[in-house]
Amino acid sequence: AQSVTQLGSHVSVSEGALVLLRCNYSSSVPPYLFWYVQYPNQGLQLLLKYTTGATLVKGINGFEAEFKKSETSFHLTKPSAHMSDAAEYFCAVSLNTGNQFYFGTGTSLTVIP
Amino acid sequence: GAGVSQSPSNKVTEKGKDVELRCDPISGHTALYWYRQRLGQGLEFLIYFQGNSAPDKSGLPSDRFSAERTGESVSTLTIQRTQQEDSAVYLCASSFYGYGYTFGSGTRLTVV
Known about the structure:
With about 110 residues, chain A is an all-beta fold.
């Protein structure tokens, strides 16, 4: 069975500080991994994804994530938080392209001025 | 269209009534997915359509929920005899065989 765990339902950081949102997964086969962002009253927007190849993946808005198979993790980071980064972030896993996604419960990021 | 379109964007209904939610996928996208997002929770998979294959209905929570899709076009999610626990945002997504996975803005359903 596949599942996704996001540690910390709420994370607060100061503007300019490092953003670290944690995601661990369980999967019976090598997964595809995704991070989505959801701004208030909007749909989900893909930040980045890992399918194969390089384990450090760069996405939009300065975010990146590293796939660590040994730790079954796919943590999302950004070196310097911006006020506009305040949103809900979801980690997701799928077995391969075309299959349904399994989502974590989300992490709400607050950026303090 | 340019994106996945869902309608209505908001729906308030009385308990016991039936509702229909609509999803217009991106033109040419073969796959369509429905998810439910309850307040403060993650997304729950409901149902997945891929082309003309039999849909994966494994996520539908009860027989009050059903969905249809004709070919690679519009899909409707129907909830019969709505209950208060059905209140949630219902999100639709589409993809081309898993590529270009794009979500709509969702329908916020409130059952009163």
